[in-house]
Write the structure tokens for this entry.
Amino acid sequence: MPRGTTGGASGTTGGAYTTAGGEFQSPALEQLVRHLQVLPGLGRKSATRIALHLLAGGDHAARLTAAIDNALRQVTRCRRCGAITEADPCAICTSETRDPGLLCVVASPVDILPFEKAGFYRGRYFVLGRLLSPLDGVRAEDLPFDRFLERLDTDQVREVILALDTSVEGETTALYLQRLLAGRELCLTRLATGIPVGGALAYTDEATLQRAFLHRQGVDRA
């Protein structure tokens, strides 16, 4: 019998993917897979494996649901730097052992994690939230540059470290910050060798990140 034709009482074969239940004959399972599939790095096969594991028995699903619910209630963003935290302001912004004169600018809260894991940086951070991207409609007014400038004055920052991805968007944002800080009496540096072109900062190993940080270079703001 040709694919897609009716196979008696069992219903369609090739047309199963067009039904609400997909190939599972279960709309609820299909919905679960589709929600998992939108997570970063998960394709349909991986999402299916996770969904079936959660439904296999035990309390995996209940514990995961409880953990997600707790995180949604407890986790927030630091109002000063934008880092992921439960206490607001965060422990980094309130720590007396951190140097307020050093301010590391990153695009995303996840970019703070490799610095903190490596443990060599003792300054503070400022999270932009995203990078400038005219093609995607992300303009300068969409980023918190006003709060950034206020932070410079409040903390009397003497060095701004640009720790942005070496992508087109990262380079565009770095250039904008260079122009924004022109005329200010502070040191402006960028991460140096070690970060590959097109590489994402969040996935850089600790040794590479530290080498790039230690050999950062001044930026011409002319």
